[in-house]
């Protein structure tokens, strides 16, 4: 067999192993080892695996993963999410469907200091949904807003998916973070426009009743300032240090984790048992991410050795569809995969094949990464997998709330994300201008 045929069989074997329930990382390691062994020999396969384990994990950059994860968990525990929502709820209380917009803005700010969509979905399903329900919003709309806006956590920096993409594509993490700012703001604006359109054209989708809920006790400017100080301080520390050039991504993660720890201690929301549980959870998340990166790196090298990506690039780019035809097929494939498997796994499986084709097509790799992250995040809202949807269902602990309602509520936000992809295809500088400064 030729190397291309072996690589193709390895790719088919990976899909088969995933379908029968084999863990993604184990499946990628197995087919990669077998592929290299058949292309060369077992000795080369063993040496390549050892080299990949060393090369892919020894980078100083990888310290950013546990630091940002720990920062996100500490921020969640300290109640910063609730304060963020309270501030925007007060500022937007007189706007039509203002609580929905407050949830979007609060999620955007919360995302800028956590970087994990699931954390946003968990926090705001417990904070924003009960408030919106109390003010006469439907279950479908309230949970849909939380599900939709939670995806901002993986787009607005710092973002775990941006880090994974930067590693696999050999791009700067700092530039990837900068590239997420414009699209993150664009998506936030599109979400707010979507909410306004729904409120004006389909009020029954948004409002359960026109009766106004009891007025909340007014929040004074002093209280708003008190609630906003921790959020703004942490944003200034992490994003100001990162974008100002004072800190690299790893140092920004360390500063953010320390700042989040100080906030949690000052608020007395962290005891020894809780802190230990957070450290254990941080370790578990970090190990799983790094193991997957190791497996994906080995898989990428096996494919490069086989010549499969180069052959696919020739087929796509010399055929009738052209570079943008490939891009549309690629985005459609990622969205379809999002219905079945989780975000990081999609990137680890698809990117080793797609990146060489994207480079051959002449695409800006930073822009291509932003497009990839948005398409991957759509999978968090689409059935049957829809991880954000199931996270909200679990966090709400409400037997009367059906998963189908949450999926239905998330549909308008899926459409808004597809619109964002279309806008970014037409206007790439939205994603690249800040990263190129």
Automatic annotation (TrEMBL):
UniProt keyword list: Cell inner membrane, Cell membrane, Membrane, Transmembrane, Transmembrane helix, Transport
UniProt keyword Transmembrane present: yes
Transmembrane domains' residue ranges: 6-39, 60-81, 101-129, 141-165, 177-200, 228-246, 252-270, 282-304, 324-354, 366-386, 406-427
Described purpose of this protein according to its UniProt entry: Part of the tripartite ATP-independent periplasmic (TRAP) transport system.
Assembly behavior: The complex comprises the extracytoplasmic solute receptor protein and the two transmembrane proteins.
Family, similarity comment: Belongs to the TRAP transporter large permease family.
Identification of the protein by name: TRAP transporter large permease protein
């Amino acid at each position: 067999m030729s190397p291309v045929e072996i690589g193709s069989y390895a790719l088919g074997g990976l899909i088969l192993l995933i379908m029968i329930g084999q863990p993604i990382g184990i499946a990628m390691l197995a087919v990669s080892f077998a592929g290299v062994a058949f292309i060369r020999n077992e000795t080369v396969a063993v040496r390549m695996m050892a080299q990949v384990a060393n090369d892919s994990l020894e980078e100083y950059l990888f310290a950013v993963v546990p630091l940002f994860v720990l920062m996100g968990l500490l921020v969640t525990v300290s109640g910063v999410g609730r304060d963020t929502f309270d501030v925007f709820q007060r500022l937007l209380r007189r706007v039509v469907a203002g609580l929905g917009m407050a949830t979007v803005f609060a999620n955007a700010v919360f995302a800028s200091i956590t970087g994990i969509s699931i954390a946003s979905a968990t926090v705001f399903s417990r904070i924003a949904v009960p408030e919106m329900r109390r003010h006469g919003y439907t279950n479908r709309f309230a949970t849909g807003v939380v599900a939709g806006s939670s995806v901002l956590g993986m787009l607005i920096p710092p973002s775990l998916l941006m880090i994974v993409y930067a590693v696999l594509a050999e791009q700067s993490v700092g530039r990837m973070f900068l590239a997420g700012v414009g699209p993150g703001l664009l998506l936030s604006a599109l979400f707010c426009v979507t909410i306004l359109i729904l409120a004006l054209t389909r009020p029954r989708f948004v409002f359960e009743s026109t009766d106004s809920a009891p007025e909340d006790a007014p929040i004074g400017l002093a209280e708003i300032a008190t609630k906003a100080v921790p959020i703004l301080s942490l944003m200034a520390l992490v994003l100001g240090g990162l974008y100002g050039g004072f800190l690299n991504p790893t140092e920004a993660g360390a500063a953010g984790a320390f700042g989040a720890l100080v906030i949690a201690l000052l608020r007395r929301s962290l005891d020894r048992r809780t802190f230990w549980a957070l450290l254990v959870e941080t370790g578990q998340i970090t190990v799983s991410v790094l193991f997957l990166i190791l497996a994906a790196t080995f898989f990428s090298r096996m494919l490069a050795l086989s010549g499969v990506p180069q052959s696919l690039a020739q087929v796509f780019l010399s055929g009738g569809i052209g570079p943008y035809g490939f891009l549309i097929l690629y985005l459609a494939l990622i969205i379809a995969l999002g219905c079945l498997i989780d975000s990081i796994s999609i990137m680890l499986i698809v990117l080793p094949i797609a990146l060489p084709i994207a480079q051959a097509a002449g695409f800006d790799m930073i822009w291509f990464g932003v497009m990839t992250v948005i398409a991957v995040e759509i999978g968090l809202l689409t059935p049957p997998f829809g991880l954000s949807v199931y996270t909200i269902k679990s966090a709400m602990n409400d037997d009367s709330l059906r998963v189908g309602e949450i999926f239905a509520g998330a549909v308008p936000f899926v459409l808004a994300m597809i619109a964002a992809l279309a806008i970014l295809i037409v206007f790439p500088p939205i994603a690249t201008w800040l990263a190129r400064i």
